Amino acid sequence: MKISIITVSFNAKHTIADALESVAAQTHPDIEHLVVDGASTDGTFEVIRQYEKHLAKLISEPDHGIYDAMNKGLRLATGDVIGFLNADDVYADPGVLGRVAESMERHRLDALFGDVSFFRSNNLKRDVRRFRSRYFQPERLAWGWMPAHPALFLRREVYERVGHFRTDYRIAGDFEFLARAFWGQSLRYRYFPEVLVRMRLGGVSTGGWRNTLLLNREVLRACHENGIPTNMLKILSKYPAKLLEFLRK
After folding, report:
1. Which helix (H) or strand (E) holds 221?
2. Angle at CA 102, nearest 5°, toward 98 and 104?
3. CATH (residue range 3-247)
4. Are β-strands 3-9 and 31-37 bridged in parallel, bridged antiparallel, or unpaired?
5. Selection from 83, 69, 77, 219 nearest residue 151 by Cα
6. 135: pLDDT confidence band, cut at 50, 70 and 90?
7. Is 0.85 surpassed by the pTM of this model?
8. Quick one: which of 75, 66, 61, 37 has its CA closest to 167?
9. What is the arithmetic mean of pLDDT over 226-249?
């Protein structure tokens, strides 16, 4: 099974080397790593060039935001399965993609998702939170629940069937895509009960109350546009459960 990993970046000079190294260290024998850089100006491209021998494709050009860059990667991907690794995230260990491929082949899955853990940049060894994807079911989209996107792997045929990311979303384009992919569909999916990806706190979706407000507004919009009955109170009700993640990390 060939796995395509797409990493999009913009001015990520201080973190992207960790992401690239974690993909290069994977033991799965058939990995296609594509990096789409948004014409970074801080030296990110020069860092990426140091890992070019491990990359199937590297482009650096202006884009119209993160979802436009992700779509560029999707158009280039040729793997049987596609995953996204952010420029400031890393795989939990070198065997992650091998276990993903084995499980997806054995169970003939369209989708597989696991957990992510979060750490602060000043202490890379200590996780402060764990996002558990095990609670996700398509009907829980109405409450704003989704599997952790960096720990989600989909067959390329899913993208061919439901389309790519919408670029008119600023922060919840991944949720909107998953609403299309899972709501009313019959995907064969499975939860993988492990931390697959470690994420730095402070990214777009964890970057303060303004981003949280925008995120929830776009989640509500995505539900309405995809025929998922919900309201803002329903979506906000997920936060007490999220607080528990800090206590049971």
Report:
1. helix 209-225
2. 115
3. 3.90.550.10
4. parallel
5. 83
6. confident
7. yes
8. 66
9. 78
